[in-house]
Amino acid sequence: GGADLDCEVLVLGGGPGGYSAAFRAADLGLKVVLVERYASLGGVCLNVGCIPSKALLHVAAVMDEVAHMADLGVDFGAPTVNIDKLRGHKEKVIGKLTGGLAQMAKMRKVTVVRGYGSFLGPNHLQVEETSGSAQDKTGSTKTIHFKRAIIAAGSSAVRLPFLPDDERIVDSTGALALKAVPKKMLIIGGGIIGLEMGTVYSTLGARLDVVEMMDGLMQGADRDLVKVWQKMNAKRFDNIYLKTKTVGATATPEGIKVQFEGLDGSKSEGVYDLVLQAVGRTPNGKKIAAEKAGVAVTERGFINVDVQMRTSAPHIFAIGDLVGQPMLAHKAVHEAHVAAEVIAGELKGDAKLASAAFNARVIPSVAYTDPEVAWVGLTEDQAKAEGRQVEKGLFPWAASGRAIANGRDEGFTKLLFDAETHRIVGGGIVGTHAGDMIGEIALAIEMGADAVDIGKTIHPHPTLGESIGMAAEVAHGSCTDVP
Ligand code: FAD
């Protein structure tokens, strides 16, 4: 049938996956339409995720640092917080970045269509147009015909079904809205997102409780890294409930009354001014009528893809949070480039581009807490669980001149090497700026570096990054047959 718009590549969703795919496809000379339901591009990451959380975490880190300055001989006194101004700062940061994306889309002649997209068939998407700042449908629709499509519809926060509807119960988006600072806050879910938001609110004055079903916070990271974080952050928490489920909640005028049940059967209760649900994210795969395009969606709403990001329909690709863990922006961006290149290769008959594939060995994770916790590749706990032999090089920051000069020597840097090949297979850092340093370890893993390569690389002194070279030198001693 007739279509209002015709393109070579249709991209559904304007988050880090979607805009990166659209831009790469346009740069490779393809005619691209990008469909996004919200007024601004950038998806979860720029609007209600990575970026606003880091804008607030930066302020919190400076406040904590300044408070600590009194011990070093400079007392700034107690801070006064203007929460409206702080919120305004965060909004400005978002606006700068999303505005930049709109400009970049224009420069590349990517057609951005505002509305809610769902598939009509293998080569057609229907868009119900939306307006305003929300996703309110205007009633008018557009049909887009495409040769190839890239689905980048992302994910949404999981909601616990038994929690009452109350404005004092929020997800990460509600927490980032920063309406007020509660006296007592509960974080349900001790993962990165919950702990980052908890860091912001507690620095601004809230007392925290956290409840987690597993036996430790920040699952996925090695326990030795988390231990350092936990020791430094103990003062923020009244209660850390581990191996505990949230089983019920009622809204009362005094606060949200929440019931907990330990896996051992023990029961407890608390009353909170703010409850943050941070129990994970669920893919948006079931909300786009993918089946009409012949794209298989799993029970949980994920879309399975091959290494070229191709779905069960060979002309349709999927990327980002929608295709599986880890749900991280940098993963989405790299997958986006693969999908765009494969499509450009096929449509333009370029065999090299058409053979693009996602073959990253590792994807780093970072908790932008204070201190930061960052890890990449094999973890020590994983190696133990799998019975893999590894050599470890650990450098404590108590021996780092820069960390001591900064008054922040609680951290450490750890590298793991395969016991047979001596090549680096993983690493973890806990300490200030850990997230900015983990990329070097990822590079070393991608390059197949061994401890000598890293240890003999001259790092500038005195820096925190030096600790990576030092950790390699520690391991080097155990790598006897490395030339
Ligand atoms: P999304 O960003 O979810 O984008 C999908 C887009 O598609 C959205 O804009 C949505 O409106 C649109 N859309 C969906 N369905 C339709 C439809 N039918 N029609 C039209 N449009 C549609 N990751 C990091 O790497 N680092 C971090 O520090 C980090 N911090 C985070 C903090 C928080 C609080 C949260 C919630 C997430 C954080 N993440 C972080 C995760 C990161 O935001 C996601 O991994 C990333 O946004 C995924 O990108 P995406 O393109 O797959 O999807």
Provide a descriptive summary of the structure in words.
The protein is an alpha/beta fold and 483 residues long. 33% of the residues lie in helices and 27% in strands. It contains 14 helices and 21 strands. It has helices spanning 16-27, 43-48, 50-69, 83-107, 172-176, 192-203, 223-233, 329-348, 351-354, 380-386, 401-405, 434-447, 451-455, 466-476, and strands at 5-12, 32-36, 111-121, 124-131, 136-151, 155-157, 169-170, 184-188, 207-211, 237-241, 244-252, 255-262, 267-272, 274-277, 281-283, 316-318, 365-367, 372-377, 390-396, 412-418, 424-431. Strands 1-2-3-4-5 form a 5-stranded mixed β-barrel. It has a 5-stranded parallel β-sheet with strand order 7-14-8-9-10. A 5-stranded antiparallel β-sheet has the order 17-18-21-20-19, with helices on both faces. Helix 1 links the parallel strand 1 and strand 2 (32-36). The protein is globular. The model has no long low-confidence stretch (mean pLDDT 96). Flavin-adenine dinucleotide binds next to helix 1, strand 2, helix 2, helix 3 and strand 3. Residues 12-18, 35-38, 43-45, 49-50, 53, 116-118, 152-155, 172, 193, 284, 287-288, 320-322, 327-330, 332, 368 line the site of flavin-adenine dinucleotide (FAD).
List strands and helices in order, with pairings.
Blueprint lengths: L4 E8 L3 H12 L4 E5 L6 H6 L1 H20 L13 H25 L3 E11 L2 E8 L4 E16 L3 E3 L11 E2 L1 H5 L7 E5 L3 H12 L3 E5 L11 H11 L3 E5 L2 E9 L2 E8 L4 E6 L1 E4 L3 E3 L32 E3 L10 H20 L2 H4 L10 E3 L4 E6 L2 H7 L3 E7 L4 H5 L6 E7 L5 E8 L2 H14 L3 H5 L10 H11 L7
Parallel strand pairs: 1-2, 1-5, 2-3, 5-16, 7-14, 8-9, 8-14, 9-10
Antiparallel strand pairs: 3-4, 4-5, 6-15, 11-12, 12-13, 17-18, 18-21, 19-20, 20-21
Helix pairs in contact: 1-8, 3-4, 3-6
The site of flavin-adenine dinucleotide has 38 residues, from helix 1, strand 2, helix 2, helix 3 and strand 3.
Cofactor: (R)-lipoate; FAD
Enzyme class: oxidoreductase
Keywords: Disulfide bond, FAD, Flavoprotein, Lipoyl, NAD, Nucleotide-binding, Oxidoreductase, Redox-active center
